[in-house]
Amino acid sequence: MELATQIFQFILSISILVILHELGHFLPAKWFKCRVDKFYLFFDPWFSLAKKKIGETEYGIGWLPFGGYVKIAGMVDESMDTEQLKQPAQPWEFRSKPAWQRLIIMLGGIFVNLILAWAIYTGLNLSVGEKYHDLAKFENGIAVSEEGAKMGLMNGDKILKIDGKPAVRMENSMINMLLANEITVLRNGKEVSFAPKEDGIAHILGAKTAKSYIVNRFAPVVDKLIAGPAKEAGLKVGDKIVGLDGKKINFYDELTKELATKKNTAVKLEILRNNEIKTVEITTTKEGKIGFGPDFGLAQKAIEQTETTKEYSFLPAIGRGFERTVESLTMQIKQFKLMFNKKIKGYKNVGGPIAIVKMMPKEIDWVAFWSFTAMFSAWLAFLNLLPIPGLDGGHALFTTWELITGKPVPQKVLENAQMIGVIFLMGLMLLIFGSDIYKFIISPFLK
């Protein structure tokens, strides 16, 4: 049932985005009196699930849920239908229109995606405000995972700036730090700036715990005991460890750090039990552990205490909606740095439809749904703006060249470029989908 809910939300989100994106092409094409032969949600090779012709346009739903398309007469598109192009250009064809009109038609879908993201973020700001975890409320700094430490962060750091800009929201900062050139933290009372280490970023992207490579610090309270030194020494569930060999311990990360330096060593733990301090002698394992599980409920409470909801009136909601759209778009652009970095190898973590489905909420959550849809709309705008033949950006590139030079790109060049672009995009799609299937098959064996 959870998977069905995720698939439903994914299809609904993609359907909204595709229909509105294609509408961004359809409406200006109609305004400039181009004939539109088809308007399809999803692709329809060989057959369609449903179709109906209204006027000169066939509206339909394809069976292959990888997007959609508007087929405009006289345009070289992904259908590679060039028969019509062998005939003299007609006034109602795309190719007969001025270059500036063709450019508007090509960029219409991208424009709609950006406006849609802005509208959704504005609506969310007005209806539920903006909920986030405020880094200023991390009074004791952060605790970092092993992957976060490899990136250069340290337990107790207070994140101040990312690339010179104040770090406010934990959610945004966790992503921005992976894309940053410089991180500034307050460490032991001093401001320290450093470049995040690429090896650490690679570990974070490849780790299952990537979403939580930083958390709020919490006290080391025993929640469960396993066979080993702690159980043998008489520790009990609920005990709070407050000292180690005379050194005060406030946080779980402090305890693990100290224990890591005392492998296979006899140590004295001070524990708080029933408001009394007790001393327990214990010998650590060769890994520097004592065999207990901390109370992660305290970690959850600690992170909940940093949660903030900012409410907006009408005009500020619009302004912040625009900022969130720009932030989302900028984030997509910066991610390409990770994709093609030789050390980070971000391409290994690229996901397709299966990965996206797994991102959807397991229960109907309209705030999460619309937040995802806004983010994905900005992503589609960026993707379609890439100057790759077969995408809107490829068409726009050739049209811009015509506007600058005053000479149209030869029809044969357009056809060959479109063919190369389609082959490239199909290959990329197969690679991404193949990666999805591979991860789906092997994931049970990695648990």
Short description, anyone?
The protein is an alpha+beta fold and 447 residues long. It has helices spanning 2-31, 99-127, 146-151, 170-179, 198-206, 229-232, 252-260, 296-304, 314-339, 353-359, 366-385, 392-405, 411-442; strands at residues 36-54, 57-72, 130-133, 142-144, 158-162, 165-166, 183-187, 190-194, 214-216, 222-225, 240-244, 247-248, 266-273, 276-283, 292-294, 307-310.
Query: Which range does the strand content fall in?
Result: 15-25%
Number of continuous helical runs:
13
What is the number of independent domains?
3
Please estimate the helix content.
Answer: 40-55%
Q: Which class of secondary structure composition applies to the elements?
A: alpha+beta
| Model regions low in confidence, pLDDT < 50 over at least 5 residues | 429-447
Task: Walk me through this protein's architecture.
With 447 residues, the chain is of the alpha+beta class. The protein folds into three domains: 2-128 and 362-446, no CATH class; 132-217 and 296-310, Pdz3 Domain (Roll); 222-294, Roll (Pdz3 Domain), CATH 2.30.42.10. It is built from 13 helices and 16 strands. The strands form six sheets. A four-stranded antiparallel sheet has the order 6-5-7-8, covered by helices on one side. Strands 12-11-13-14 form a four-stranded antiparallel sheet. A two-stranded antiparallel ribbon has the order 1-2. Helix 1 crosses helix 2 (99-127), helix 2 (99-127) packs across helix 9 (314-339) and helix 9 crosses helix 11. The longest helix has 32 residues, at 411-442. The chain is elongated and about 95 Å long. Residues 429-447 have low confidence and may be disordered.
